[in-house]
Design goal:
Blueprint: H1 2-17, H2 24-30, H3 38-49, H4 51-66, H5 79-90, H6 96-103, H7 114-129, H8 143-147, H9 160-163, H10 167-214, H11 233-249, H12 252-284
Helix pairs in contact: 11-12
């Protein structure tokens, strides 16, 4: 609404204050009666005098010329306002055909274009034949409807689902396809969520296994373990105690194997110990 009002105001400025036969400097000096600030008036003049502005103006004129019954003399006033003003002035009801004559006639009583001229001549001729048509009430088959019948084409405009035109089937198919795509997207999203959950579980299991593998084995090191003399009586007694405990809790065959391993371990140690005793005694002397 505001944009249309701005366009209408520029039309008024151009029609009333702009002279295409004058130069840009002369139009600037003439001004626009301070309807808008001076910088804005200069900008409008530059646009109207430019090649782009003139080409656009000619194009719009040609487009409006192709549109029959599109021109009128009411400017920014609506037909409802003009109708109310005419009824107040004449003191009677005004029909739509008479309103058309008033909105398409200039101040010099000439029609606005050739199309309007033909329609106004037909309206006046019908009024002379039947004066009751002047104040005819509006209905579907009134004189104005016969003079300007509604254009009917094979293809209806508007929303296809509401008007039932040729586009209704295509719109319905598009809606069905859209619904199918939405359902498929829901299934895909549920599958993605399941994969993400499984990935999180696998990552957790991987972290646990990695921590177990990277953890050091809990066994005493050689430096931290106590030094035990293999030939000491306490060591032999503890080994014998361990052997006796194992003999009670294990089968006979396993006990014999352990005794053999102990014999193979202790006897060499005793031999080494005996060979070292004289050297220590001589060193002490």
């Amino acid at each position: 609404m505001a944009l249309q009002a701005r366009k209408d105001f520029k039309v008024v400025l151009k029609r009333k204050y702009f002279n295409p036969n004058l130069s840009r400097r002369q139009n600037i000096s003439n001004g626009c009666a301070k309807r808008i600030p001076a910088p804005q008036w200069v900008w409008l003049l530059n646009h109207w005098k430019s090649d782009e502005g003139q080409l656009k103006s000619e194009k719009n004129k040609a487009t409006r010329a192709l549109q029959l019954n599109s021109r009128h003399t009411t400017r920014s006033r609506s037909n409802a306002v003009v109708l109310d003003q005419l009824e107040l002035k004449e003191g009677r009801q005004i029909g739509r055909a008479e309103l058309y004559v008033a909105t398409h006639t200039r101040k010099d009583e000439k029609p606005i274009d050739d199309y309007s001229n033909d329609k106004i001549d037909e309206i006046r001729r019908k009024f002379d034949e039947d004066p009751s048509l002047i104040a005819e009430e509006t209905h579907d088959n009134d004189f104005f409807s016969t003079l300007f019948p509604k254009e009917r084409s094979g293809r209806r405009c508007g929303l296809g689902l509401l008007s039932g035109g040729a586009t209704s089937g295509r719109i319905f198919e598009a809606l069905v396809e859209m619904q199918e795509v939405r359902e498929e997207n829901k299934k895909l999203w549920s599958a993605v969520q399941m994969l993400m959950s499984n990935q999180a579980k696998l990552q957790q299991q991987y972290d646990e296994l990695k921590s177990e593998v990277s953890a050091p084995e809990r066994c005493p090191s050689i430096e931290s373990s106590p030094i035990v003399n293999p030939g000491s009586p306490d060591h032999l007694q503890s080994m014998n105690g361990d052997n006796q405990a194992d003999s009670v809790s294990h089968p006979k065959k396993k006990h014999e194997i352990q005794l053999e391993e102990t014999r193979n371990t202790v006897l060499p140690c005793l031999g080494k110990t005996k060979s070292k005793i004289p050297q220590r005694t001589h060193h002490q002397k």
